[in-house]
Amino acid sequence: ETEKAILLEQEIKAKEETQRQLEEKMEAEKQSNEERMRQMKEKMDEEMRLQREEAQRAMDSKLREQAALLEKGFQEKADRMSQEMEEFKRQNTEAENNRAREFAELLENSNKRHEESMAMMMKQHSEQMRALQQQMRARPSGGCCI
């Protein structure tokens, strides 16, 4: 009986250690996912900022060109330039919206994968805890307690 109790205690300690490791793995996974999300957001923000700056430079250039055309009396060309600028603005806005939508989908997919991974680990955690509790209940109540 004493040997059985000792072996059971060792087995329980081993399962508790496995459980502790699983909990650490889950926490590490959570931290890793949060860091990945933060980096993706920073990258997206930087890309959007650069895209806006480039669009602003292009728009400034077109405005200078339009002003020069107006100074020289080319109203028709200046009007065409205005239309081009409006089209450029529309395309730029559409590109920004597309990139934002793509980023949102990327985040959603990443979060979904993370949630699935965490659910699987939680299931393992629950199963291990259930097995551990069953072993604790099956332990002989009388006799040696180590």
From TrEMBL:
Q: What is this protein called?
A: Guanylate-binding protein/Atlastin C-terminal domain-containing protein
- Which intervals hold domain Guanylate-binding protein/Atlastin C-terminal? 2-89
Spell out the SUPFAM superfamilies in the cross-references: Interferon-induced guanylate-binding protein 1 (GBP1), C-terminal domain
Lineage, top-rank taxon, reads: Eukaryota
Where are the residues of the annotated region Disordered?
17-61, 78-98, 123-146
> Which Pfam families does the annotation name?
GBP_C (PF02841)
Query: What InterPro entries does this protein map onto?
Result: Guanylate-bd/ATL_C (IPR003191), Guanylate-bd_C_sf (IPR036543)
Q: Where is the composition biased (Low complexity)?
A: 129-139
